[in-house]
Design brief:
Helix content of chain B: 25-40%
Number of strands of chain B: 22
Helix content of chain A: 55-70%
Order of helices and strands of chain A: HHHHHHHHHHHHHHHHEEEHHHHH
CATH topology of one domain in chain B: Rossmann fold
Number of helices of chain B: 15
Shape of chain B: globular
Oligomer: heterodimer
Radius of gyration of chain A: 22 Å
Number of helices of chain A: 21
Largest interface: A-B, 12 and 16 residues
CATH class of one domain in chain B: Alpha Beta
Chain lengths: ~475, ~475
């Protein structure tokens, strides 16, 4: 029990800090006078109070955290914060059930971007800001989680990512201390967000929309303040800005950091994921452009290019914006985009899925097996970016993949058991576990998750957390061995 | 010359052997006293037992008045420290160090006079690798040696029936390949040298040495024999220093398979190589060679540390259908034994690397020395100094120079930068000379009426090593100039 108390102590502090993040929407609400002010007052006080109680009640148990506590803390942060994040929704929309509110909040914090709310345009701006800010915070926490914390815990081959910048820039850690690393990454994240806000504004959004969409672009979240998402503006310029920043956010933030420190673009060249990520995305965009054009979805190639590239980049990076209902395209296109979302974004980015580096390791492992079959005495290590991947990590990645597939399969089965059709069930699970957002059919880009039953929504919420916490982090907490003294 | 050789390993011993015969005072330093005893028994030199990086040992070896220190111990660190000590304590004029590790070689500034004070760095593995690379580039040649930063090459090739020039007089070569300027420097027939004249007839099985710019090598060789297909598939036995370097150099443009016996070493090898296929196994294992398609290999290189293993695997590979086999053989007795048999080219590492050391021992401004025919003959690159009054060479036509019989001037390279003319080891070691600085240099194939100027690099072919002394004297500047 000691373990739980010690972690709760830290969690209390995190909750209090989280309470402070309700101030921006509160201020906006006050300034715009948008009728949601009372919700923030109450939520703010309750969150701060709960955090304070949690910290004070367990202050005698405060101690240095162990690796095991790390797992528990990460899981608790990502599952408890959504509870507090639901408060503004619950107070402002009493008709909303806790299930739906939790889904909405978790979808924000895990940067998934799936929603059960409709009529977004008529919501008060402060509520929309809160939804977007949740994603931004989630993305921020996620980068630190992915770059600084998970490698320490060694989840599913995450050790590999510590040394993922080969070549002359090789640093096992970016800076000697995690706190410093976290600070540097936040600065870059904030800087990119700021430039994205300005770019959106210049491209034609108003300031509030620019801020909200910059928040959800950099976090690859995909929440929009409009039901039509990016279709609302119908502007190629805005879409271009979005594509650029989604690609930037889909790269490893450690590489951004190295580029910033070295003042040269060389670290991108040394990043084994960056090139592959950009190449696969670009090839997919062009391929789908031709596909859509030949299938006569769009009359001319330029329009096809515009829609194909925006939606492909958005889905591949697991953002989840849409500028049109792409589920109406010939089924190959949305399926291919969904497939991309499961591996395309880089490790250490805000994207979801199994990450490009794991995909590369798996792909090379397949080739190694074939070489060993042809040349039984060959020594053929798996290499990524010029450095050898130890077998231990290859196995961890294989285990990761099998759990990933098993999770998708079992949750899809559970959803079909509860009455959903296969396409909806599968796409919902994949969209949630990849932290993508919209699925197909009943949960497609043109609709929301509100058609699902409470049970189905909980399954989806679980899938989002599972994908966000890289499967092992969450699952390990459910093993008896974890709690054994 | 007083020379101290640190390390009585393979390189040290063979350098000593070749220098003793040239009237030098040699002191050898090594930790192993029994090895030194053995050397002292059959060579006329002094030995000192001790750690070559200790100042007291260097003093005992007579470093105070030594002209040259050759640090060729197994350890790079010892070699570097010894050179530094020789520079700071004894002010030794010439300090040469053998460096294995590519890691040191990647930072040439550490050898400068402010740091480790190494005048010339020699990396035998690198020299050997480049030597073999040349043979893979020109699979018909027995030997390809570069002079003047690669502007001109000396090539040894065996004449075969089918070559247009075989059975004809040498002077026809000009009519056969009118655009190519080349000169046949020597012909060896049944191991006896023939001084080539215009009316010399080339016979099959002759070993022909000719000098030509690199771009023309192929055209000249085509006259002597039928050309093979270019080498594409290479199998290397032994993933040591040489095998690894060779694989790394070849893997981009060739299909390379490399066999290494040691499991750990093969894992390291696989980590370092990007495209080459690393196989863990025994290169003398017939089944392994068979399953790896030895019959399809254009070139098989046996490069392990073990002579017997190299010979056996090379013979096996040849028997199983490899087109051409090369074996690295340290013992000179073995080299003679196998060269005529199934092995196409036997390489003696000591003979290949010794040239770069000899260049610094020779009197006169010698840029490069290459041992040929297992040390019997030699090819030199000399820089000519002085003016027509002080020199026997400058301002004279090639025909008028009183060269001893058996020495031929093959080519003259004019316009090479002088100051850097002697960088760090011309072949294999550090290439400090930039390609651009020598780009405007001009290659003149020597004819009777070519006039030699001061600053020229002259490439000489000497059939018998005993003549070298006379050649050196001829090229030395008269007293008063120095």
């Amino acid at each position: 029990m000691n373990q739980l108390f010690a972690v709760t102590n830290v969690l209390g502090m995190v909750v209090m800090m989280f309470g402070l993040t309700m101030l921006p929407p509160l201020a906006l609400s006050f300034w715009m006078d948008d009728s949601a002010l009372f919700a923030y007052h109450q939520s703010f006080v309750i969150t701060l109070f709960c955090g304070l109680v949690m910290t004070l009640a367990t202050r005698w148990h405060r101690r240095e955290l162990q690796v095991r506590d790390g797992f528990l803390l990460v899981v608790l942060v990502w599952s408890v914060l959504p509870i507090f994040a639901t408060l503004p929704f619950m107070f402002f929309m009493p008709q909303l059930s806790f299930t739906d509110a939790y889904f909405e909040a978790a979808s924000g914090i895990t940067t998934t971007g799936a929603t059960i709310l409709s009529g977004l345009d008529s919501l008060p701006p402060s509520i929309n800001l809160w939804r977007c800010e949740l994603q931004w915070l989630g993305g921020m926490g996620l980068i630190v989680l992915a770059v600084a914390i998970l490698p320490l815990l060694g989840v599913g081959g995450r050790q590999m990512f510590k040394a993922e910048t080969p070549g002359p820039m090789k640093d096992t850690k970016l800076t000697p201390r995690i706190a410093e690393t976290a600070k540097a990454l936040w600065l870059i994240y904030a800087g990119l967000t700021l430039s994205c806000i300005v770019a959106y504004r210049l491209a034609g959004m108003d300031w509030i929309d620019a801020v909200m969409h910059a928040f959800t672009t950099l976090s690859l979240g995909g929440v929009s303040s409009h039901d039509a998402s990016f279709g609302h503006w119908n502007s190629a310029l805005i879409e271009c800005v979005a594509i650029f920043f989604m690609l930037v956010a889909g790269l490893n933030f450690a590489s951004h950091f190295l580029v910033w420190r070295a003042k040269s673009f060389l670290p991108y060249r040394h990043d084994p994921e960056a090139g592959m990520f950009i190449m696969i995305t670009a090839v997919s965009c062009i391929g789908l452009t031709f596909y859509l054009w030949f299938m006569e979805v769009y009359p001319d190639p330029l329009t096809a290019l515009r829609f194909a590239s925006f939606n492909t980049v958005s889905i591949a990076t697991s953002t989840g914006y849409s500028s049109t209902d792409y589920y109406l395209w010939p089924i190959f296109a949305p399926l291919w985009m969904l497939f991309l979302s499961s591996f395309c974004s880089s490790s250490g980015s805000t994207g979801g899925g199994i990450k490009m580096i794991r995909a590369q390791i798996l792909f090379k492992q397949v080739f190694r097996e074939m070489i060993v079959i042809m040349h039984p005495q060959a020594i053929s290590p798996v290499k990524v970016g010029g450095s050898v991947v130890p077998n231990r990590i290859v196995f961890a990645v294989l285990a990761f993949l099998s759990i990933y597939i098993a999770s998708i399969a079992s949750m899809t089965l559970i959803l079909t058991l509860s009455g959903l059709d296969l396409v909806t069930a599968l796409s919902a699970v994949v969209a949630c576990i990849n932290n993508l957002g919209p699925g197909f059919s009943q949960v497609g880009p043109a609709t929301t998750f509100s058609v699902l039953t409470d049970f189905q929504i909980w399954v989806c919420s679980f899938a989002m957390l599972l994908g966000r916490l890289e499967l092992f982090t969450l699952l390990i907490v459910f093993t008896p061995a974890f709690w054994r003294k | 010359m007083k020379i101290i050789i640190l390390g009585a390993g393979r390189v040290g011993t063979s350098v000593a052997e070749s220098l003793v015969s040239e009237a030098n005072d040699i002191t050898m330093v090594d930790l192993a006293s029994d090895r030194l005893h053995l050397l002292q028994d059959h060579l006329d030199l002094r030995t000192v037992v001790g750690n070559a990086s200790h100042p007291s040992v260097l003093i005992r070896a007579g470093a105070e008045d030594a002209d040259m220190i050759l640090a060729v111990t197994q350890s790079d660190e010892t070699n570097l420290v010894a050179c530094k000590l020789a520079a700071t304590m004894f002010n030794t004029p010439t300090k040469i160090a053998r460096i294995h590790s590519a890691n040191f070689l990647a930072y040439p500034e550490i050898f400068s006079a402010d740091n480790f004070c190494v005048d010339f760095v020699i990396c035998p593995e690198q020299i050997l690798t480049e030597y073999i690379e040349k043979l893979i580039e020109f699979p018909e040649a027995l030997q390809v040696l570069d002079f003047a930063n690669g502007k001109v090459s000396l090539v040894a090739v065996r004449a075969f029936h089918g070559g247009p020039l075989v059975g004809r007089e040498l002077q026809e070569l000009r009519q056969h390949v009118p655009n190519v300027d080349t000169r046949v420097a020597a012909i060896f027939r049944k191991d006896r040298p023939i001084i080539p004249e215009g009316d010399t007839v080339i016979e099959a099985e002759d070993e022909v040495f000719f000098i030509a710019p690199e771009k023309d090598i192929r055209a000249v060789m085509r006259e002597m024999r039928r050309m093979d297909k270019p080498v594409e598939r290479v199998m290397i036995a032994g993933g040591g220093n040489i095998g690894k370097r060779l694989a790394k150099a070849l893997e981009k443009d060739h299909q390379v398979k490399i066999i290494e016996y040691d499991k750990r070493a093969s894992e390291r090898l696989a980590a370092d190589l990007d495209h080459a296929l690393v196989l863990h196994g025994d290169a003398t294992d017939e089944d392994l060679l068979e399953s790896e398609n030895i019959a399809e290999m254009d070139m098989f290189c046996a490069l392990t540390n073990d002579d017997e293993n190299n010979i056996m695997s090379a013979l096996l590979a040849k028997r199983m259908g490899a087109r051409k086999v090369i074996a690295l053989i340290n013992r000179s007795a073995y080299v003679d034994l196998v060269q005529s048999g199934g092995i196409d080219i036997a390489i003696s590492p000591a003979q290949v690397t010794i040239g770069s050391l000899l260049a610094h021992v020779r009197r006169g401004d010698v840029v490069a020395v290459h041992s040929l025919r297992r040390g019997a003959a030699e090819a030199l690159e000399l820089v000519v100094h002085g003016d027509p009054r002080s020199s026997n060479v400058v301002g004279r036509k090639v025909a008028d120079i009183k060269l001893p019989k058996g020495a031929t001037i093959g080519a003259i390279v004019r316009g090479l930068p002088t100051a850097e003319g002697r960088g760090l080891g011309d072949d294999g070691g550090q290439k400090t000379k930039s390609a651009a600085s020598s780009a405007d240099a001009q290659v003149l194939i020597a004819h009777h009426d070519t006039v030699i100027e001061t600053g020229d690099h002259v490439i000489l072919f000497v059939i018998n090593k005993k003549l070298i002394h006379q050649v050196e004297e001829l090229f030395q500047v008269g007293v008063g100039f120095l």
